[in-house]
């Protein structure tokens, strides 16, 4: 059976929440496009800050943007100068009041997006891919993950023929279990010989509702 269902979308409304919280009947396409522009701009602007995810919440005249980053110091800047500057730039993009919140990710080794971005960055620097994958798996498992799976595909190591390389099995990553908290992310490494795609799945255990725990 093909594993083509997005692990995050598959669990939406079950154990995962939406990353854009708003409702629109008329201007849906325009607001969706605005969300994509905001996300793209923030990721480009805070490339060095290690941005994992961006949550957007809309009110009639205000947009609340929550940025989760591994290096909040770079995003905030000295005395909050960078945050104020970014807030003003986002206001110009949306023509609405923008409320910007920066949240710190305490354990970047357990965040799939940060792990994928780190892998892609090292592949661009021509580090041996097997060593990179093995190191990422070891550090994630050491930080307390239940399981991790990494797949790289493309002209790995500058080879003539593209191929797919998988990490050695580490822990468990049950993709069909809805209550399993699976963090999934992709990244692209732009190497000299071509692009290499990186996919990361991290299992954080199972989310069990309180009622089930009491019954058990």
Question: What does this protein look like?
Answer:
Helices cover 34% and strands 30% of the residues. The chain is α+β, with helices and mostly antiparallel strands. The protein has 2 domains: 17-104, 2-Layer Sandwich (GMP Synthetase, Chain A, domain 3); 108-210, 2-Layer Sandwich (Ribosomal protein S3 C-terminal domain).
Concise description?
The chain is α+β, with helices and mostly antiparallel strands and 216 residues long. 34% of the residues lie in helices and 30% in strands.
CATH architectural group of the largest domain: 2-Layer Sandwich
Task: Look at the structure and give the mean pLDDT.
Answer: 90
Helix/strand-derived category reads alpha+beta
Q: CATH topology of the largest domain, anyone? A: Ribosomal protein S3 C-terminal domain
Q: How would you spell out the order of helices and strands?
A: HEHEEHHEHHEEEEEH
Poorly predicted regions are none
The level of helicity is 25-40%
Shape: globular
Core attributes:
7 helices, 4-stranded mixed sheet, GMP Synthetase, Chain A, domain 3, 34% helix, Ribosomal protein S3 C-terminal domain, 216 residues, 9 strands, 5-stranded antiparallel sheet
């Amino acid at each position: 059976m093909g594993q083509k269902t997005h692990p995050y979308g598959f669990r939406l409304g079950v154990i995962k929440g939406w990353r854009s919280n708003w409702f629109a009947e008329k201007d849906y396409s325009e607001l969706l496009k605005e969300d994509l522009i905001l996300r793209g701009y923030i990721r480009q602007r805070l490339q060095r800050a290690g941005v994992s995810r961006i949550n957007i919440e809309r009110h009639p005249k205000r947009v609340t943007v929550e940025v989760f980053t591994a290096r909040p110091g770079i995003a905030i800047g000295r005395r909050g100068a960078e945050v104020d500057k970014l807030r003003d730039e986002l206001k110009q993009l949306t023509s609405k009041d923008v409320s910007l919140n920066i949240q710190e990710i305490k354990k970047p080794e357990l965040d799939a997006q940060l792990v994928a971005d780190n892998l892609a960055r090292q592949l661009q620097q021509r580090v041996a891919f097997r060593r990179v994958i093995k190191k990422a798996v070891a550090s994630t498992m050491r930080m307390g993950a239940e399981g991790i799976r990494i797949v790289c595909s493309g002209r790995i190591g500058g080879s003539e023929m593209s191929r797919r390389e998988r990490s050695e099995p580490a822990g468990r990553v049950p993709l069909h279990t809805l209550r399993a908290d699976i963090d999934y992310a992709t990244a692209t490494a732009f190497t000299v010989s071509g692009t290499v795609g990186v996919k990361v799945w991290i299992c954080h255990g199972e989310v069990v509702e309180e009622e089930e725990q009491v019954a058990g």
